[in-house]
Amino acid sequence: MRIVVKILTYNAFIRPPFISTLSRDYRDERLALFGEMIFNKYDIVTLQEMFSILSRRIERVIEKAKEYGLIYHWRTPKNPLWKLSSDGGLLILSRYPIVDFDIHQLIRGIHGDFLSDKSVIYAKIEVLPKRYLHIFSSHVQASYSDYPHVDKSKSVRIRFTQLTEIRNFIQCKTEDVKKYDPIFLMGDLNVNSRLYEKKSHFSSKEYKIMMDILCGKRSFYHPST
Questions:
Q1: What are 14-37's pLDDT values in tens digits?
Q2: Contact (CB, 8 A) for 74 and 89
């Protein structure tokens, strides 16, 4: 038996209440559109930047998703206020049962990302009896320039380290997976695959290194900040 499973990953840009533009990033207006525009069309949705600190928007999104049949979810846990940092802002929603789940916290980031517990979350989803999709979602360190220097940028080095951690986590969680069960890494990996500002069919150096990391050809380790 074959089925079609529609999957979406999306950076929702629902930042904490104390971080926003004058328009509040139109958070509530955009979330109001999620039902018909997203939940009505997809079977599995992974969202990033669904931060829960000082906000209950993520709970509202989870309840709205249930109205459209995405009744299963897994998310990064909400941090207590005394921790003075946000959760990782990750959420997986599914129309199919989540039969196993896990989380791994990544090396702490820098700049604005220092305030978020960067993580990768995992959900094992049963789409048919004894047939599974293995979904991993993450949001790694950002760079605050369009074309960071791959060999000199600290943010790039941290990002590569986080990608190494993600690869190791995927290997750990899927070492006994049947070869026909698909494995998906989804999320916001903050890597520009374009070759700088030139029009080109070639991939950027950073993108090639990222693919080498995920394929197990290279590893990076940066001291925790």
A1: 988 777 666 678 888 999 999 999
A2: no
- For 7-214, CATH gives 3.60.10.10
Q: Is the per-residue pLDDT at 198 higher than 70?
A: no
CA distance readout (Å), 198 to 145, 150, 181, 195, 202: 16, 17, 38, 6, 10
Query: At residue 51, does pLDDT exceed 80?
Result: yes
What is the DSSP track for 111-152? GGGGGB--EEEEEEEEEETTEEEEEEEEE----SSSS--TTT
Q: Looking at the DSSP assignment, which residues form a beta bridge with residue 92?
A: 46, 74
Compute CA 174 distance to the chain's CA centroid, rounded to the nearest angstrom: 18
Q: Provide the CB-side half-sphere exposure for 3 (13 A, CA).
A: 12
**pTM summary value:** 0.92
Parse the chain into domains and list their residue ranges: 7-214
